[in-house]
Amino acid sequence: MSKTILLNQNWIFSKDGHDETVTLPHTWNAMDGQDGGNDYYRGTCSYTTVLPDISLPENGRAVLQFDAVAMTAEVYLNEQKLAEHKGGYSAFCVDITDALRNGSNLLRVNVDNSDNDTVYPQKADFTFYGGIYRDVTLHVVPAAHFALAENGAVPVKVTPAVTDLDERRCEVTVEAFVVGAQSVNFTLDGQQTSAAVKDGTARAVFTLEHARLWDGLNDPYLYTVTARLDNGETANTRFGCRKFEIDPQKALF
Questions:
Q1: What is the rounded (10 degree) CA torsion for 177, 178, 184, 187?
Q2: Which of 6, 30, 110, 196 maximizes the CB count within 10 A of its CB?
Q3: Per-residue pLDDT tens for 223-238?
Q4: How deeply is 202 buried, as exposed, middle or buried, from its count of CB atoms within 10 A (0-12, 13-18, 19+)?
């Protein structure tokens, strides 16, 4: 079964030759970036940590997930560069399986919040904080597993469409993105169906009769769809059923 390990403890933060132990989330602009001026530190710093012992299942994979690093990140394992991510406000994943070695594994992340002309946003009325300011997790997954997309997207996508508002009928398309699996079993509101995997995606369509519609603060009801693989791996996604229309003469409904 998949295992998720939180890696927020015991990081060594290095800035201008000075090292200190920090716990994530962390930013090096916690003090100099809070006064609203434009004199805070912008540059490259590094975070290093030793990964825990990793026991991979047969043909399994080890994937790091960074929920957010501002603004540019370079990821190294045992001094081998594995990935670069630009953008401080999105999650990303890095498969480290092929770079793992027996014994200890040193993870280093170079983080840069320098003024530049390639990473957006370019100008704003807020501080461009630098650092690993969200969780870092290690996912150890079996050969058949739900895909851990490079952009950190969830592995189960739901597209609900209200086809009859008066009858509250909703057609729900569910897609699961998987690796190494032949089929996926979906469950929604007491309904079950199985779908074959094609090009890494399994797709199923459900019909909800008399659906409970999502209604903002009055009734923000969410359904839950569950996807399950033959080896017991599961993934859940919540969603609401609603309809909106835009009329150029009458505005938004």
A1: -50
A2: 110
A3: 999 999 999 999 999 9
A4: buried
Q: At residue 8, what is the residue type?
A: N
Average pLDDT over every residue of 115-136: 94
The position carrying tokens 């890095």 is: 94
Nearest to 148 by CA among 233, 53, 77: 233
> By mean pLDDT, which of 50-59, 143-152, 199-208, 240-249 is the weakest?
143-152
Question: How many residues appear in the chain?
Answer: 253
Pick the closest to residue 175 from 141, 191, 198, 142 (CA basis).
Answer: 198
Q: Is 113 helix (H, G, I), strand (E, B) or coil?
A: coil
Residues 6+ positions from 53 with CB-CB distance below 8 Å:
none
What predicted TM-score, i.e. pTM, was given to this entire model? 0.90
